Amino acid sequence: MDHVGNPLRTAQDRRLPRIPEPCALVIFGVTGDLSRKKLIPAVYDLANRGLLPPGFVVLGFARRDWGDGDFESLALEAAKKGARTPWREDVWQRLASQFQFVPGSFDDDAAFDHLAATLDDLRERNGIPGNAAFYFSIPPAAFPLVLNQLARTGMADNAKSGGWRRVVVEKPFGNDLQTAIALNQLVDEVFTPQDVYRIDHYLGKETVQNILALRFANSLFEPVWNSKYVDSVQITMAEDVGIGTRAAFYDASGAARDVLQNHLLQLLALVGMEEPTSFDPQEVRAEKLKVLKAISLPKDIAKGSIRGQYLPGWVAGERAVGYLEEKNIPSDSTTETYVAVRLGIQNRRWAEVPFYVRVGKRMPRRVTEIAILFKRAPHLPFDPADVEMLGHNQLVIRVQPDEGVVLKFGSKVPGTTMEVRDIAMDFQYGEAFTESSPEAYERLVLDVLVGDRTLFPDAAEVEQSWRVIDPLEAAWADTKPEPYRAGEWGPRASDEMLAREGRSWRRA
Amino acid sequence: MIGLWDTTGNEVVKALAAERRSAGGVASGLALTLVAVVEEKKVREAEAAATIAAAAHPCRLLIVVRSDLDGRSRLDAEIVVGGRLGPAEAVVMRMYGRLALHAESVVMPLLAPDVPVVTWWHQEPPETIANDFLGVVADRRITDSAQATDPVAALRRRAEDYAPGDTDLTWTRITLWRTLVAGAFDTTDEQVVGATIVAPEKDPTAALMKGWLQSRLGIVPKWEFTDRSPRLHSVELQCANGDCVRVTREENTALFSRTGQEDRYMPLPKRPVGDELAEELRRLDADQIYSEALGAMAGVTGLDKKPPMRVHVWKDPALAARANADAGAMAGPGGSAA
After folding, report:
1. DSSP structure class, residue A325
2. Contact, A160 vs A191, CB < 8 A?
3. Below-70 pLDDT ranges, chain A
4. How confident is the model over B117-127, as pLDDT tens digits?
5. In terms of CB atoms within 10 Å, which end of chain B has fewer, N or C?
C-alpha cells in the first residue's frame, strides 16, 4: 500500500526509525531451535526498542498440542535467554498478549483453515489490514506441504488478503542446483517472487554491510581494488566448535553446502562486485549476480581445492573428539568439515587474481575475515636484508569477532639501520557481536516487515551459487577428505596448495 | 589514571599522550571530541552519561568544570584512558579563577585532530552560546533546557540564539513520542485538523511537541495544562473524518488509542541521559526538523538560514558583576578579579 505521504515523516527527520505497518508474523516451527534462539529474542528486542507497530501479532504454528499458555512460557524462556537488550517485564507482558499459538500438523487442513480465519480475525480486532509475513523455520522437506496449504487457503495471495503477504525462508536453499530451482519455483509460484525473502544472516551483520561503505564511500581504496594492485584475496571462516547437534544435516551436506554456498560466496560477491548504480535492492543484487556468474573454478579441481575432516585433538584447552567419533556420524563418513578452494573472477577487474576461500570447523579460533593482499612494490631501493621481514601490504576486513578493519604496511624499525618491517594499523568498531548474533536477525526481521529487500539474496543469486558448488561436489564424489587435527588450521595439503603458487595462508 | 594538581595545559597534553602510549591500542579510532561543560555537583552524572555514549561513539571526552571564578587561577586535571570511563579517553579538568573564563586555552590543544567537536552543557544552558568559546569551537552544540529554572523560556531563548548544529535534549526526549505519533499516520491518508497536548505548563518537551506538530501539519495545537503528571501526559490528533488518535503516557508505557480499534500499549521508557546523548552523537549535521519545530514553538522564522558558525563575543562576568554592584547601593562580594 502506497500512501500520499505521511506529513509527520520526512527524509530529513532521521531520528524517527522505520516502523512496519500493522502486521502479523506467522512462524512455522515456532518451537524449533532457530525460533527459540533467534526469532523470538529478535522480536522481543525489536519490541523493546519500540520498532514494532501498534498492531502487531505473532502467530506460532507448530505440531504440538499446546495452549496459548504453554506457548507463552516457552516464548518467555526463549526471549529471556536470548534477548540482547535489557529485560523489561512490562514490554514482555504487552508482547506476550500479542502471541497466539495455532496447533496443527502441516497436513492438517483444518489447522490451516483455522490459521487463515485467525488472520482474517486480526483485521477486525487488531487493525491489521491483511499484512502478514510467514517465517519458515522448518526443515526444507516440509516446505512443499506448507506452501500448498498456504496456496489452498489463499493466505499467500496479496490481492485476496488486502495487504501484503511475504514469506521468509532460511538456508539451506536446496542442496544442489536442481533442488534449489525446484524450491524457488515452488515458492515463487505460491507467493510473488518479490515477496520471497531468503535469509542469509551474514548479510544482516553490520561489518558485512560496511564492506559496501568502505568500498563505495571512500576514494582511497577503490583505485587499488583490482588486479593491477591486488595479488590475491583470502576469505576465511573458521569455527572452533564442532558440528554440535546437527549431525544428520551436516553429514548429508558438509562444509561446502553448509556455508561456502551461501555466506562465503556472498562475502566474495560483496568484495568483488562493481559499484551498483544505487543502493536500490534491484541494483545491488544485479551487481552481486554478475560477480557470481563470473566465478571460475580451478581447472583441475583435485589440485585447486582441498577437503578436510577433523581428527581428535585439543581446542582451546579442551579435548575434542574427531568428526568420525561425533554422535550419529557414520564411522566411514567422507563428509568434509573443511574446504579450501581457489576461485577466480573472470572479468577485467579481477583477471588472474586468485580468491582463496576456506571454511573449517574445529579450527584454533573463531574468526571470519576477508584479507586483500596487495602486490609487492615493483622496485625496492633497499638492501635485500633490510626488507626481509616486509610482506604484502594487506587490508583485512574482520567480520567477526572484534569486527573492524586492519591495514598492514611496512614501516622503518626505529634505529640506526634502515630495517623495514610490517606493522598493523587497527580500527575496531565499538560494538561487539557474537556468532549467534541476534542483531543480524533483528535487522533482517525488521527489514522483512518493512519490505526492504536489499539484504536478501534473490533466487538467481542462490541458483548461481549452486552452479559454483555443484561441479566441486561432483569432482569430490568418491574421494576421501584429508585428515587434520582438531585445533589446527586445516590439513597440510591446504598449505601446500598455496605454497605451490608461492603464497601462504594468513594466520587469521 | 593520572591526577595533576595545580598544573598547566601543556602538562595535561603531555600526560594524555603518555597515558595513551602506555594504555596501548585503546580508543584508536576516534569519531569525535566531546566537550562536556558541567558544574561540580553533576560531574559524576555527566561521566556516567558520557560513558554510555562513548560505548557507541568512540570519542575523546573532555569534561570542563568551572567554579570559583573569584578565586586564584588554577587548573586540576585527571586523565583516564580506557579505565572507569569506558572505552573513551577522558580528561576531567577543574578550572578556577580567571582561568575558568579562558577554558578554551586548555581545551583547544586537547581536541583530537580533524574530527568533529561536540559541546554538551550538562547544566543550565548558556544565555548566549557565542559568549562561551567552548560552544563557538564546536560543530554541534547540545543544551538541556530542562535544567533551567524556566525551561520553556530557556527553550525560547534557544530559538533566538539558534545556529544550525544546535540541539536541545528536550527534543531528544520526545523522539519516542514522535515515533508513536508519526507511526499512526503511516497507514492512513486522513488529514489532521486539530491536536491537543496535555502537559504541565512548564514542560519544554510539550512545547517542542506543539512546535513540531504545528510546523509539520500547519495546525495550531491546543495545550491543556495539567498538574496531574510531571511530564508530557498525552497527545491527541483529530482527523478530518472525525477519527481520533491518542497517545497517553502511563509509567513506562504508552497507551495508544484510535477510533474503531482496540487500545494497545507500546513501550515508552524514560531513557538515561547517556542514551539521549548517544542519539545526539549519531548525527553530526544540523537537525532541520528540530529547527522548524523550535521556530514554530517560539514564533521565530528562518532559523536554518542563520549562519552555522558563531563568532565569539567576549563577556566578562566580573565586569557585569561590578556594573551591577555599581548600580546598586551595596558593594557585591566579588570584584577581586585579576
Report:
1. G
2. no
3. 1-4, 65-68, 429-438
4. 999 999 999 99
5. C
pLDDT surpassing 80 at residue B320: no
Nearest alpha-carbon partner for A465 in A198, A228, A151, A219: A198
- Rounded to 10 degrees, the C-alpha dihedral A404/A410/A416/A418 comes to 180
ipTM of the complex model: 0.71
Answer for the pair A463, A175: CB distance below 8 angstroms, yes or no: no
Residues 6+ apart with CB under 8 A from B325: B331, B332, B334, B335
Using CA of residue A139, residue A142, residue A143, residue A146, what is the dihedral sign?
Answer: negative
CA angle A14, B277, B9 (to 5 degrees): 130
User: pLDDT by residue (tens digit) across A30-75?
Assistant: 888 888 888 999 999 998 888 888 888 998 888 776 666 777 888 8
User: Using alpha carbons only, how large is chain A's radius of gyration in Å?
Assistant: 25
Q: Please state whether the peptide bond connecting residue A401 to the residue before it is cis, i.e. omega within 30 degrees of 0.
A: yes
Q: List the strands of the sheet with B234-239, edge to edge.
A: B222-225, B192-199, B234-239, B244-250, B253-258, B264-267
Of A3, A114, A201, A263, which is the active-site residue? A263
pLDDT of residue A247: 86
The pTM (predicted TM-score) of the whole model is 0.82
Give catalytic status of residue A263 as yes or no.
yes
Note whether A223 and A303 are within 8 A (CB): no
DSSP B88: S
A16/B182 touch (CB, cutoff 8 Å), yes or no: yes
How many Cβ atoms are within 10 Å of B283's Cβ, its own excluded? 12
What pLDDT is stored for residue B331 in this prediction?
Answer: 44
Residue range A339-352, pLDDT digits in tens? 999 999 999 999 99
Check CB contact under 8 Å for A88 and B269: yes
Residue A13 in contact with partner chain B when CB distance is under 8 A: yes
Q: Which of residues 223-262 of B touch A (CB under 8 A)?
A: 251-253, 256, 258, 260-262
CB A429 within 8 A of CB A404: yes
Residues B53 and B282: their CA atoms lie apart, in Å, by 10
